[in-house]
Structures are given as C-alpha cells and as structure tokens.
Amino acid sequence: MELTYYSDFAVRLINTEEPLRGTDALTSVDAVRRLFGEAQQAARRAGEGDVTRLRGVRTRLRAVFTAAAEGDEVRAVDLLNALLLEYPASPQISGHDYLDEAGRPRWHLHLAEHPSSATAGYAATACMGLAFQLTDLGVDRLGICGAEPCRNAYLDTSTNRSKRYCSDRCATRANVAAYRARKRRERALSGRTADGSPVSADTSET
C-alpha cells in the first residue's frame, strides 16, 4: 500500500469537527474506532482518553492545512514536522497480498502497528501519510474548503491544482452564493429591487 493513502487519516480526523457550525462528531470511543476504518486491530486499543487526545491532534492537523491554504508553506511544514517528532511512525517493507505476474511479492512500504495507544497509532499514520502526500504533490495540495460555513480539509489531487472546495456540493453552494451576491450588487447599482421595481428612499434589500 502506498503511504500517501494514509493521508486520508488526517482529513478524516480534521473533518470530524465543523467549527463554524459548532458541531463535533468526535465525542466517544465508538467515534474514535470508526475513524480507523478497516484498521480494526488498532481501533480495539481505543479508550476514553483517546477522545481528548485525538481532539488535540485534530486541532494541530487543522493548523497544518490552514497554513497551507493561506500559502504559508514553511509554517505548514514546521507544524507537521513537530507532529512527526511527537508521533513517530514505523515504516516496514511488506509483500503480502500483492503478487506480480510471476507470483513474486510486490514489495511496498506500509506502517507497522505497535503504538502505545490508539491516538499514537492514528496520529503517526495520519502524519506520515500527510508528509508523503505533501512532499510528493506539494504543500499547495492541502486545502480548506472555501464554501462558508464549511471548513472541511481536503487534498487537491486535480491535474491543474484548481480545487477550492471539499465536494461538488460545496462548490455548487459557493457558486450559487456568488451569483446571488453579484445580482444583488447589480440591482443596487441600477437602483432596483429583486422584482425589478425601483428602490425607494426608505427601502433596502436584505
């Protein structure tokens, strides 16, 4: 398995919270376990303390994406390096389940699972995957959704580095909002309301 695959661990963790909406899905041990997806062995180590610890990691990972989205590459890298030092990973060469046409193993790197806690395992996996993604594709591939109030993190894998939103839904919502704002400006300049009637001296549009 390519290590860039693990960068999705970082995105999943960050997006358990929607700061502008005041929602947080990371509130229980079960929520922690769901984050691991297919990595059930690591998930079984999760305890109550991992909820708080992973929230702390989440805040720091969001800061990495925010710095990258703001164009501050050095800060993004420094923040990620600090996490990598605190949560070191253990890459190992594996060939299981991947054979070439001659029946020989397709050697690849994956992350060994022997951390001290669920948080340590998840954070190490997320940070290592993000580090490989960042160095392979570039810091500018890390983004924060531009559609308010969504502030989801995303990885831009587009060929022209043009992604600005975390999903098609958010892109559509942002385009509609921009269109409506443009129409409001046009009507204000022409002195007319939404239904085409003139704007009176004591009438304003909300």
TrEMBL record:
Residues 187-206 are annotated as: Disordered. This is CGNR zinc finger domain-containing protein. It comes from Streptomyces johnsoniae. InterPro entries: ABATE (IPR010852), ABATE_dom_sf (IPR023286), Znf_CGNR (IPR021005). It comes from the Bacteria. The lineage of its organism: Bacteria, Bacillati, Actinomycetota, Actinomycetes, Kitasatosporales. It holds the Pfam family ABATE. Residues 141-183 form the Zinc finger CGNR domain. SUPFAM superfamilies: Jann2411-like.
